[in-house]
Amino acid sequence: MSRRRVVAGNWKMNMDITGAKKLCKELISLVKDSEHEVVFCVPAIDIPAVVEETKGSNVSVGAQNMYFEESGAYTGEIAPSMLTDAGVRYVILGHSERREYFCETDDTVNKKIHKALEHDLIPIFCCGETLDQRKSGVYKDWIKGQIENGLRDISSSDITKIIIAYEPIWAIGTGETATSDEAQEVCKLIRDCIKDLYSESVSEDIRILYGGSVNGSNSEELFSKPDIDGGLIGGASLKADFANIVNS
Ligand code: PGA
What we know:
The protein is α/β, with parallel strands linked by helices. The chain has eleven helices and eight strands. 2-phosphoglycolic acid is lined by residues 10, 167, 172-173, 211-214, 232-236.
């Protein structure tokens, strides 16, 4: 078992092109010695500038969404081939903010994962529960459902190309991180779920990240857990602190 760690920044709807270039310059030099997979998932309009800035570095570029059709009359959407053509390698799919504000469902997320794989994009597939679901104890079944539905009909040869990100909604942007034990519990549950759906060896190979108020002070403890293979980082990815996370 040798899973390469991934630290992906999710810039969300932050940084215009000028700001994006500046942030790249600052962060690239700080993470240049990392052996982890480092990804900046940036707003679509920043992609060409960030691809240019990251050229020759150890940082890859990701998008935050894409559509599941090849092209056509889908005003406002971005096709997978447009992403690959622009130099994008990763795409976040099913983030809770997309599910909450833009009506994404397990079904649309599943279609997007299939389409991303067809185009050799690496999906960063997000799942996570609300605070109510955690408090009432249904969160484990909820996460299992998201995993099973989101990964429907994904073949065993494709499954390990996917990166799964466990992001409890109550921990996103709130400063309230899950404890490392809470995060480990669900990341293990996801790995067990993959074992049931595929096989033990597949479950040992797939990368599972934790996301939700990760910063340079808590990342080491979180990433030391056996089933946590890195992080999806929101707020802290816009600051030099991102490098502390990458280097932890
Ligand atoms: P946060 O966001 O690190 O700001 O909590 C994480 C995410 O939404 O991916």
